[in-house]
Design brief:
11 helices, alpha/beta, binds ligand PBG, 10 strands, single chain, globular, TIM Barrel
């Protein structure tokens, strides 16, 4: 009776990886139990999630390296993998909320979320925003319920809102990655979409556009900007190491707050459990309870399916 925080399957958004072709599911080495799925297996997985009461999925494409270039050209192709996946999922499961990332990293040969300056030492913010606007409109046309700018360019939420409205997609929402930190814990995700290998042996630093993990007040400033620019949901990422930020953001906005329990958080729990050092089910539950207790309304987590099944 006095328990303050309760997890439900409806709290979760499941991130899913999609690949082209008809191959068998490919397990991601650093993310046990997470697979890259072809489109037909993806639809099956979405159906299983919906049956378990998970209301939403976030789709991430893994492109063949040969399709990537410095400009991320394939992001603006009407027939690009993720858009075909969206159309297939929405056709089979119209009630399932489908979310897609607006960022260039799955498409660029250098693995950055935007196109680069002529000197190649930073992302070109405004030129990237122009591309993201078009990308968001293509995603809306394919049928997504929310676009999720994860790129951290300045001013992109307002620009995307304007582009969506101008194209008639006034009902397509924006889930903004508002306080996204430059985290070392994204490593397994970059394996999953191949954006780490894309950068070759060079260490991929997104420090010029993602936030400094040392900063707390800046997160609130970023959230206020995205809120004012028209974000429908604001997000903090990563989640588990940033519970203070989730709480600050919860108190700074009246919008729903999402948190992304990222690949490295998932990998850590699995790795320790494999060694027999931690109990997987209990740590999974505790990690998610902590994120919700901190103030998250919605949680993106690779544990979505297992948690929903466990909660039943
Ligand atoms: C990039 C993006 C990243 C994630 C989601 N979208 C990683 C990055 O910034 O390189 C990370 C998710 C995870 O680690 O689970 N636009």
């Amino acid at each position: 009776m006095v328990e303050e925080t309760v997890l439900r399957p409806a709290d979760f958004i499941a991130p899913l990886f999609v690949v082209d072709g008809k191959g068998a599911p490919e397990e991601i080495r650093s993310m046990p139990g997470v697979f890259r799925l072809n489109i037909s297996d993806l639809v099956k997985e979405c159906r299983a999630l919906a049956r378990l009461g998970v209301p939403a999925v976030a789709l991430f494409p893994k492109l063949d390296a040969r399709l990537k270039d410095p400009e991320g050209t394939r992001a603006l192709d009407e027939d690009t993998l993720v858009l075909r996946a969206v159309r297939a999922v929405k056709k089979a499961l119209p009630e399932l909320t489908v979310i897609t990332d607006v960022a260039l990293d799955p498409y660029t040969s250098h693995g950055h979320d935007g196109v680069l300056t002529p000197a190649g030492d930073d992302v070109a913010n405004d030129r990237t925003v122009g591309i993201l606007r078009e990308m968001a409109v293509l995603q809306a046309r394919a049928g997504v319920d929310f676009v999720a700018p994860s790129d951290m360019m300045d001013g992109r939420v307002g620009a995307i809102r304007g582009a969506l409205d101008a194209a008639g997609f006034t009902d397509t929402g924006i889930l903004a990655y508002s306080a996204k930190y430059n985290s070392a814990y994204y490593g397994p995700f970059r394996d999953a979409v191949g954006s780490a290998q894309a950068a070759g042996t060079r260490l991929l630093s997104k420090a010029t556009y993602q936030m400094n993990p040392a900063n707390r007040r800046e997160a609130v400033a970023e959230v206020r900007l995205d809120d004012a620019e028209g974000a429908d949901i604001v997000m903090v990422k990563p989640a588990g190491m940033y519970l203070d930020i989730i709480r600050d953001v919860r108190e700074a906005t009246r919008k729903p707050v999402a948190a992304y329990q990222i690949s490295g958080e998932y990998a850590q729990i699995h790795a320790a459990a494999r060694l027999g050092w931690l109990d997987l089910a209990r740590c999974r539950h505790e990690s998610l309870i902590a994120i919700k207790r901190a103030g998250a309304d919605l949680i993106l987590t690779y544990f979505a399916k297992d948690m929903a099944a466990a909660l039943r």
